[in-house]
Amino acid sequence: MKKNKVLLFGICILVLLPTQVLAQGWRSRTWPTTPEFPPGIDLPVDPPEETPIDPPETPPAIPEDPPDKPVDPDPPSSYFVYTVKKGDTLYSIAQRNKTTVAAILVLNPDIEDPSVIRIGQQIKIPQSSSDPTPPDTPPTGTLSGWIITIDPGHGGSDPGAVNSALNLREKDINLQIGLKLRALLKNLGAQVEMTRETDISMDIPDRRTFSNNKGAHRLVSLH
Predict the structure, then answer these.
(1) What is the pLDDT of residue 144?
(2) Which residues contact 162 (CB under 8 A, 6 or more apart)?
(3) Cα separation of 176 and 170, whole Å?
(4) Cα(175)–Cα(222) distance, rounded to whole angstroms?
(5) How many other C-beta atoms lie within 10 A of the C-beta of residue 185?
(6) Residue, of 141 and 217, whose pLDDT is higher
(7) Across-strand partners of 148?
(8) d(C-alpha 180, C-alpha 150), whole Å
(9) Do residues 211 and 149 make contact, with C-beta atoms less than 8 angstroms apart?
(10) Which residue in 122, 120, 86 sits closest to 104, CA to CA?
């Protein structure tokens, strides 16, 4: 009986001993905490993150005003229609009607080249309300005051160049051209003198003398 009590006591010690050891272990164990620093030493503080600041937006450029477009002059309120004749130019038409080429072009935007007009073309001519419509008279032209001598080459016994196959003689062609040229120059206002108007012979010195005696400003020799 006594032996049984001793055995039971020993078993209790064996059972309780590990429990006490474990309890002591738990009580003596400490967990790591925030490290302590000596007084006077500040804890390192991470700098605050800087929020990037967007650069100021550049204001949009203010567009410059476009250059003023030249304003075409207002077309005249009244005009008359003129029919172009032989020898007419815009300059001569403007002079006769006391206006300018620019004023005529304003009324006639279809004229692209002021130096080119055709016979029979109708052109609007500006006029003031107080001016009567001028009559459609033959032009005086821009050669008024000029004296021009036309000299059809060869003539008479001197035929010049000859084309027998076509029965053409230079003297005849020169005379035909000379007569047509005379009509054109007269239409421009020039005084025209001919060294010959028919098939006659005339020496070269006599042609020059004839032109000088007429006081010609120009001598046109046709060959």
Answers:
(1) 85
(2) 168, 169, 170
(3) 10
(4) 8
(5) 20
(6) 217
(7) 192, 218
(8) 11
(9) yes
(10) 122
The owner of tokens 């030249």 is 70
Q: How many residues does the chain have?
A: 223
The residues, ordered by sequence, that sit 6+ positions from 92 with a Cβ below 8 Å of its Cβ are 139, 140, 141, 142, 188
The proportion of the chain whose per-residue pLDDT surpasses 70, expressed as a percent, equals 59
Q: What is the average per-residue pLDDT within 144-151? A: 92
Average pLDDT estimate for 91-108:
89
Name the nearest CA neighbour of 217 among 192, 181, 189.
192
Place 75 in a pLDDT band, splitting at 50, 70 and 90: low
Coil, strand or helix at 8: helix
Instruction: Set out the domains of the chain in order of their start, with CATH numbers.
Output: 79-126 (3.10.350.10), 147-222 (3.40.630.40)
Tell me the CA end-to-end span of the chain in Å, nearest whole number.
Answer: 176
Residue 186 tokens, joined: 């007269």
Give residue 178's pLDDT band: very low, low, confident or very high (50, 70, 90): very high
In DSSP notation, 144-211 reads TT-EEEEEE--BTTB--SEETTTTEEHHHHHHHHHHHHHHHHHHTT-EEEES-SSS----HHHHHHHH
What is the identity of the amino acid at 206?
Answer: D
